[in-house]
Amino acid sequence: RAILMWKIRAEGFLHRSITYTLPKSFAWLGLGDVVELTDTDLSISARVALVQSIRWATEETISITLLVVDDPARDI
Q: Exposed, middle or buried, 66 (CB in 10 Å: 0-12/13-18/19+)?
C-alpha cells in the first residue's frame, strides 16, 4: 500500500520544468538537490522542486532548470 501511494504521488500528476538564470553564488547546487521554490510571477509558493540541470550561462551567471513536483495533498 505504501509503495502504491508513493507511486501515485510520484507519477499521478504532471511535472513542470522551469529554467532560471541565477548569479554564480548558486553554483553550489547539485543535480538532484531538493529546493523550495517561490515565484510570484508564476503563482508558485513554497513548492518542492528538484534541480534537473545546471550549466554556466556566463562567467557570472548559471542557468538552472528545476523540476516542480506537484502534489495537491501536500501543497494545499
A: buried
pTM for this entry: 0.74
What residues contact residue 49 under an 8 Å CB cut-off, 6+ apart? Answer: 18, 34, 35, 36, 37, 66, 67, 68, 69
Tell how far CA 71 is from the center of its chain: 13
> What is the end-to-end Cα distance of the chain in Å, rounded?
23
Cell of 5: 501511494
Distance CA 15, CA 35 (A): 15
pLDDT tens digits, the chain, 76 residues: what are they? 888 876 776 676 677 899 999 999 999 999 999 999 999 999 888 888 999 999 999 999 999 999 987 765 555 5
